[in-house]
């Protein structure tokens, strides 16, 4: 009989991406509801709904329908991926090795390192800094420094502290944002705006769905990072429901509030966060600004923690017991620089482009790993996941590159690049919107299915015979 180790939120988490042994498993699956609620209770989520109305030209109900669809897809995949963590006790980008091989997995691991540890970190830090600066009147750079220091401190300590912070933050942020949402919908300008007629725009609908999916699914590459400590016998259904619902409910409520806030006239020259609270009573606006700052910290504690995990999943060997914690600090410094640059440029365009780029790579990656898992059902992975196994599976990286390039070249629709099909149908005003994530997901899954039969990558033995703890997953770990 094995006994689990209780959570130690004040102790710095040792090691890197090694498998979590049975003796160290702990927690409840429903903690994932808070884990995937708290980081979405922030301004970046609100802004997705805002751009649906203000920039993509949708009416409120059209925007809400697109938001629900995009969030439902992203939350469903979040729930499915979260169920994978307890079986082997491995992080998401480590599990990705089965579909990409040890070296091929460097591609998705590197992309996620940049997107999570740097990209999302910068995006959320900016919104938190704007909120803190608006509330206190302090210089924006000082506000950014304060936000980043707290975010990095949480990620440095590690998994257990992050889980405790998300649990309590979800309660506080949930209460505040419910109050803020009621205030937004109670504004005199919102009712007439919701009731006004808008012709349906498929382009705006597709863009909003892609943006919402990009946001909700942005958590997909680190879903099992926060379920891998759960006991192996934990109900998969409960894990999937907790993670998926936490993601869906929080994203949908705040994006709906963002869509409604776009109907309120904001002060000229106001920052995005200032504009959002401008239509609220002063006291509600003030507590909402506090919540936006805390929400940014809640999101980035996950982003920088998982960014470090993805970096190590690429096979980088760092022979220090605190290697994950050290990497988190490094990402904090780089993320601060990127956030500062973003503040000095066009925040709105940067965020819109970033959301779509997130969906561009996650959708094909998701199609590949889901098909791979289906093809491997009932089989073990212990023999080829370790670093020293040097397992190869070229089908994954080939599928990712082909599907990614084809979908972007043909269907991308953003200010950075416009695809061939989009250009042929009107450019930025094309009626097809942005179908890149959909095409990328389907195409990658089909290509991988075909190439899996061609390359015939290694399959493990019966799952029932898999060892309890996989040894040697981390390149720097000779023990676990």
List its salient traits.
480 residues, mainly alpha, Hydantoin permease, globular
Break the fold down into its secondary structure elements and pairings:
Elements: H1 31-35, H2 43-54, H3 60-82, H4 85-88, H5 92-95, H6 97-104, H7 106-136, H8 140-157, H9 159-185, H10 190-195, H11 202-216, H12 236-261, H13 272-277, H14 282-313, H15 323-343, H16 347-375, H17 394-411, H18 420-424, H19 436-455
Helix pairs in contact: 2-3, 2-11, 2-12, 3-11, 3-12, 6-17, 7-8, 7-14, 7-15, 7-16, 8-14, 8-15, 9-12, 9-14, 11-16, 14-15, 16-17, 16-19, 17-19
Describe the structure.
The chain is built from 19 helices and no strands. It is mainly α and 480 residues long. It has a domain at 28-357: Hydantoin permease (Orthogonal Bundle). The longest helix is centred in the middle third of the chain and has 32 residues, at 282-313. It is globular. 59% of the residues are buried.
Q: How much helix, percentage-wise, in residues?
A: 55-70%
Number of strands: 0
Tally of contiguous helical segments: 19
The oligomeric state is: single chain
Integer-rounded radius of gyration: 22 Å
CATH superfamily of the domain at 28-357: Hydantoin permease
H/E order of the elements? Answer: HHHHHHHHHHHHHHHHHHH
Quickly give the structural class: mainly alpha
> Could you name the ranges where pLDDT drops below 50 across 5 or more consecutive residues?
none
pLDDT average, as an integer? 88
| Overall outline | globular
CATH class of the domain at 28-357: Mainly Alpha
Fold-level CATH name of the domain at 28-357: Hydantoin permease
CATH architecture grouping of the domain at 28-357: Orthogonal Bundle
The span between the termini is 20 Å
Strand proportion, as a percent range, falls in under 5%
Main beta-sheet annotation? none
